[in-house]
Amino acid sequence: MHKLASLLFALGLAFLLMGLAAQLPLGATPMGIGADILQRTPSEIGSANIVTAVVLAYRGIDTLGELTILFAAATTAGMVLSPAGGAAVRKAREDAGLVLRAGSDLLFPLLLMVGFYIVLHGHLTPGGGFQGGVVLAAAFFVSFLARAEKQPSHSCLSLIEAVAGAAFIGIGLAALLGGGAFLQPLLETGSVGALISAGSLPLLYLAVGLKVGAELASLLAHLAE
Amino acid sequence: MTLNPPDLITILAAGSVGLIAIGTIGLAVSRHLLRLVLALGLAEAGANLLLVLAGYRWDAVAPILTGAAPAGAMVDPIPQALVLTSIVIGVGVQALAVALMIRIKAAYGTLDIRELKVLLERDICAEAGIVPPSSIHRPNYQPPPGTALPARVASTGESA
Questions:
Q1: 3-state secondary structure string, A104-129?
Q2: DSSP A11-38
Q3: Staple B63 to which of A31, B77, B78, B115, CB 3.0 to 4.6 Å?
Q4: Given B18, B24, B95, which is nearest A219 (Cβ)?
């Protein structure tokens, strides 16, 4: 009976959503803002990836809120999972098998390179700080899984996270001091498509990438312990 | 049979609504906490797909400027940026939920929400020093005799 009722509820919800979706002008841009941003970005921001321009320049303060939510989630998960006494009782772990150990040694530099590539090219190609940060966290987590003696240093990770977060806000405040709005892009826009272009956007994305990488690495380490 | 672009968009919209519906069914039906989180993730994927679809145009390219001559129309970049935010927040929520689940499993030894409800009510009443609420209409749920509810594991760091 309960299952039947929930099935009926979900089917009704799907019917409602389908009815709404049929009314939507799918396939046509519903708002003019998108087209406007597409037109202005090359001259105003100078980043080839327009999604990056929206995330960091036009909606920069939303991204700061997003980072805050991620920070709160990672901190709370660490608080929930850390032992109550404060003394970290770590289970003795054994080294993983040969395949994982050799694979992690092989993958670590490649993952680092790919992660930083994705972070630093966030204003040119698909990707950016969030995506690259996850790859960076994976690079450290694989070696953590493979070797027993490699313990992540939580204080070091929080230091990286704090410095990156402070850098993000500092760049925003620098724009404020310069007479602009908070998180308004600074520096020269440069030529669209060059690695050093789009003003302060690559710096912001570097801060985002380091922060997300450190947060996720400490989160995964907490979950694994 | 070839698909016209409007048909394609209809199929994508139906797929995203279907994902939301499957996630909703999972949320309503499943009794295991991990399955609840997975169902939430499924519904979230459907919602994200629907959002991206709002800015999709079948005759447009991705919103990335290339060195070549300006291509034709580009899709709306705003829904894509919003979905990026939504995905990141979803990851945070799921990580927090999994962390809480680990603690629940350590404390109660089960992740079944019906068993957890009985155990939590018992513990809350014991902590608050009140008799468990009861009435003649109270559903008389008793766990089957073979599977006695596990006693609460002594939690680390007693508040002695």
A1: HHHHHHHHHHHHHHHHHCCCCCCCCH
A2: HHHHHHHHHHHHHS-TTS-S-SHHHHHH
A3: B77
A4: B95
Is the Cβ pair B99, A6 closer than 8 Å? Answer: no
Angle at B110 between CA B106 and CA B115, to 5 degrees: 135
Total number of domains constituting chain B: 1
pLDDT at A85 over 70: no
| Cα nearest neighbour of B103 on chain A | A81
Min distance B116 CA to chain A CA atoms (Å): 18
The better pLDDT of the pair A188, A90 is held by A188
C-alpha closest to that of A130 among A200, A76, A69: A69
Helix axes B5-29, A2-23, angle to 10 degrees: 150
- Beta carbons of B29 and A6 less than 8 Å apart: yes
A95-144 tens-digit pLDDT: 778 888 888 888 889 999 999 898 888 778 888 888 888 898 888 888 88
Quick: pLDDT tens for B53-105: 877 777 777 777 776 656 667 777 888 888 988 998 898 888 889 888 888 88
CB atoms within 10 A of CB A110: 10
What is the distance in angstroms between the CA of the first residue and the CA of the last residue of chain B? 73
